[in-house]
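Field: COMPLEX_INPUT
Field: COMPONENT_COUNT = two
Field: RESIDUE_TOTAL = 383
Field: MODE = joint
Values follow.
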Amino acid sequence: MAAVKPKRHGPAMDMTAMCDVAFLLLTFFIMASSFKSEETVTINTPSSVSLDLIPETDASMVSIDSEGRYYFGIVDPSQRDDFAKILSDKYDLGLTNKEIVGFTTLAEVGVPMKQLKGYINLTENQRAKYDLTGIPLDSTDNELVDWVKTFGESFSDSKITVRGDGSTPYPALRNLFSEFSDADLNKFKLLTKSEK
Amino acid sequence: MAEVQVKESGGGKGKSKVKKGAGKPDMTPMVDLGFLLITFFIYTTTFSKPNTMVYNTPKELPADEVEEKELDIKVSNTITIILGENDRVFYYQEPLQAVVADDLKEVDYSAGPDGIRTAILRLKAKALDQDFWTVIIKPTDESTWANSVDILDEMAITESNKKAVVELKQVEKIAYYTKIGKPVPAE
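Field: COMPLEX_OUTPUT
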């Protein structure tokens, strides 16, 4: 009697379940992610044991790079267009709607208000090469205070976060705190990395 | 690999052309694509949010509202920390006017026995009145922001809630620059 040989198939795996999982994860990541805004400067913050997280909304962000230049940014991208409108009206910068949309893609601004319009209209590559001067903040011209104050007027209960590079020399910070203190801004949140 | 199994339709006579259900589609490329996209999203997502540390500066009062209040803080209730250049850190526990270079003791930012934390905790334990334990932080012009944040962090760790960041007085500058062997900058 001839034995009945079972038909040989290659080992086949059912991919359906795996596919389901992959797309489930994909959906999750798409929904949970917020894209990085274009970063103007790289700032390496020091670390701390603090457990408070950065406020998601109503927070302005003052960044100080290792050269001691000041930058202004807004944490929540959806608040940037409102702010740009108010800033443009208040200081007569004449930003068009297109430029306001352009402003929302910037994580931080490192040019004085007068140059803002021109800076937004640059392409990404041109911006990378742009010689940033930072926003002036000294006893003769404390424009950074105007930015922060305008933000404070635009959104109630606004907070000031300070993001300093670890290697920034202290005088740049001393200047910041004393100028802000003169403008009656006394509460800060210092951005740090988590140590865990 | 998953493969489409096409059933051999035996015979070849007329009726065999009837389709017997759709074959299983090969899911492999779809899974590949799915995971590729996941990888992309993971890389572009900002995952870890930075944390924050509360820092409040004293309010500047107009000159006519300033109340001159003589606060009597015992020297043994305080520690003064001077943040120096190149991640060096010094502390002393002396009356301000009497401080000289030899009073400055050098420590480091680590948590070890030579670290500033050990020094703070040791002096805090010896403080006359724990409720009035005060830390005075004096960053020099050569210190970095990371130094200040490290020290503020130590304040949280050692639970030193009364703290102040102030400028160095001339007498401290002399002591500090003598200690590190550099000329005292002109005022």
